[in-house]
Design goal:
There is one protein chain. By secondary structure, the protein is mainly α. It has 4 helices and 4 strands; from the N terminus they run αββββααα. The strands form 2 sheets. A two-stranded antiparallel sheet has the order 1-2. Strands 3-4 form a two-stranded antiparallel sheet. Helix 2 runs antiparallel to helix 3, helix 2 packs parallel to helix 4 and helix 3 packs antiparallel against helix 4. The chain is elongated. It starts with 5 loop residues before the first helix and ends in a 14-residue tail after the last helix.
Amino acid sequence: MFIGTKAQLQKIKRASLTISESIISPSTEPLRNLGAWFDCHFNLNFNITKTCRSAFFHLHNIRHIRKYLIIESAEKLIHAFITSRLDYCNSLLYGLPYCVLTKLQRVQNAAARVLYKLMINMIAPWFCHITPIL
């Protein structure tokens, strides 16, 4: 995979590498390395989208069983499946624009609402302000 800006990538010939009898050509698809997804423009949008999709999937499952869980179990589940995924490779997110990071903030807000419902036994409406809940 070649990584660079659009202008830099246009200057590179899409040459393939031949090793023994195998021909290796550069990939334009996102690649996964140590759990983080990288595309050829290195903007991490694909990584954030995959992280949010996975976190919302697990949050959806936790929400279905939330009334059967005690507070400590629900908190552990949310930390294990949601917070740990948001925190993994977070140093790569340094310096990204706010509009990109809002997707991750939405996941964190939704997780806080689910946990708030468990702790207080009240429904935290999706339209109420999130700061007191966080």
